[in-house]
Amino acid sequence: MKKPVLISLCSAVFLTSAAHAQSGSGPYVQLHGGYFANLADEIDVTVPGALGPIETTSEFDYGGGFAFGGLVGFHVTPAFALEGEITYRSSDVDSFRFVVGGDAVVETGGGSVDTVAFMANGVYRLQSEAAFTPYVGGGIGYATIDRDDEDGIELDGAFAYQLKAGADFPLGAGALGGEISYFGTTGFEASGSGAEAEYDYRGISVMATYKLRFGS
After folding, report:
1. Which residue in 98, 109, 106 sits closest to 56, CA to CA?
2. Which stretches make up the Outer membrane protein beta-barrel domain (predicted)?
3. Any bridge partners for residue 80, and if so which?
């Protein structure tokens, strides 16, 4: 008799704790980090020439990258929250080709592409009786870029957007989770380099997360 009662009691405590951890109320903070895959493989460039502008393309092959950052959120309703996020993304350049008329005139490797994004997000958490809380969200904001490579092109910041989905698993006063997100921009443009250039930066992140909630 005692064993079934004990199992039932433990189950009730677990479900109650999980429901409390999943209940959306008040503010929270999150740290996140993981793998980033850069999907932007070229920059379209127009440079001055003696006979007129010359259209060229800088092509890239990227190695594995990483992303990490943090955010502060607040539940407007039990299911919906608003967030302010800062995330850094970096990817190594395995090879770089400066292409004119279909021919690579320069081919080299090395360098990296680094961005910092400042985002305002909206997140909807799906209410369930499970021991985890799935969620979906999206955001808009502004991103800056630093390109440590050899084409000499400096780019301004750009409007940024993202879509994300994940799940949280209660752990003590907080929650561990996993998240996948698609991040992109409307295009970084050249500034003060004597050339016109546009770089449609985009990529996918797969990250681990940790949330800590405040209040009841």
Report:
1. 98
2. 9-211
3. 124
Burial of residue 25 (number of CB atoms within 10 Å: 0-12, 13-18, 19+): middle
Q: Residue 8's pLDDT band (boundaries 50, 70, 90)?
A: very low
Pairing label, strands 27-38, 54-75: antiparallel
Tell me, what's the pLDDT at 89? 97
Which stretches of 39-111 are assigned E, i.e. beta strand? 42-47, 54-75, 80-100, 103-108
Looking only at the bridges linking them, the beta strands covering 42-47 and 54-75 are antiparallel
How long a stretch of residues is the chain?
A: 216
Residue type, 127: Q
SS3 81: strand
How many CB atoms are closer than 10 A to CB 8? 10
- Number of domains making up the chain: 1
Q: Which domain holds residue 12?
A: 2-213
**Domain containing residue 15: CATH number:** 2.40.160.20
- What phi and psi values does residue 77 have, to the nearest 5 degrees? -135, 170
Q: For residues 148 and 180, give the distance between their C-alpha atoms in angstroms, rounded to a whole number.
A: 26
Residues of the chain with pLDDT > 70, as a percent, come to 75
Phi, psi of 11 (to 5 degrees): -65, -40
Tokens (6 digits) for 128 = 């369930």
How far apart are the C-alpha atoms of 191 and 158, rounded to whole Å? Answer: 12
| Per-residue pLDDT reduced to its tens digit, 132-185 | 999 999 999 999 998 765 556 677 889 999 999 999 999 988 999 999 999 999
Place of tokens 């992303």: 67
